[in-house]
Amino acid sequence: MQDAHNKYDVTDFHGALLDVLSVMNQPKRDETLLTAAGVKLDQALFPLLVAIGRYGPVGVVELAESLGRDYTTVSRQVKKLQEQGLAQKQPAERDKRISEVTLSEQGKALTAAIDGARQRLMNAIFADWQEQDVKALFRLVRQYAESVKRKAPSDR
């Protein structure tokens, strides 16, 4: 009898996740998405812009942690987004000593264009899938993501 920790063989699942991450982390993929969206943006700033749009307002330290990047690197990149008019910093509501980053209206317009392009590209991937399979995948991936977030080790 297997114990609770070895209930499932996760080898294939883990391999599939690595395959997806490998594709998602390819610079060519970001370039394709930005081109499809009609957006001109330094590829190094792209994940940061999207993350601010998804999680903002967000502190720079928290943003760096969520992206697995160094705080000083993210801070410099946020400054570049600010200089381009795509992001803005303001004191956090809960603690005025902390700065939070949000997207400007121009940044929101860019992420909306990126979201639209992502939607079109993903629809092409799922074109030959059954609708119930796509919905099940989305539901289960969200459920998995929430479980991972709940059980993730925290430095806080």
Q: Could you give the order of the helices and strands? A: HHHEHHEEHH
The side-by-side strand order for the widest beta sheet comes to 1-3-2
Query: Could you estimate the helical fraction of the residues in percent?
Result: 55-70%
Q: What overall geometry do the principal axes of the alpha carbons give?
A: globular
Characterize the largest beta sheet: strand count, sense, and whether it forms a barrel.
Answer: 3 strands, antiparallel
Mean pLDDT: 89
Number of beta-strand segments: 3
Distance between the termini: 37 Å
Give a written overview of the molecule.
With 156 residues, the protein is mainly alpha-helical. The protein has 7 helices and 3 strands, in the order H-H-H-E-H-H-E-E-H-H. The chain has helices spanning 11-24, 27-37, 46-55, 60-67, 71-83, 105-125, 131-151; strands at residues 58-59, 87-91, 99-103. It has a 3-stranded antiparallel β-sheet. Helix 2 packs across helix 6 and helix 4 packs across helix 5 (71-83). It is globular.
Describe the structure concisely for a colleague.
The protein is mainly alpha-helical and 156 residues long.
Write the layout of secondary structure elements.
Elements: H1 11-24, H2 27-37, H3 46-55, E1 58-59, H4 60-67, H5 71-83, E2 87-91, E3 99-103, H6 105-125, H7 131-151
Antiparallel strand pairs: 1-3, 2-3
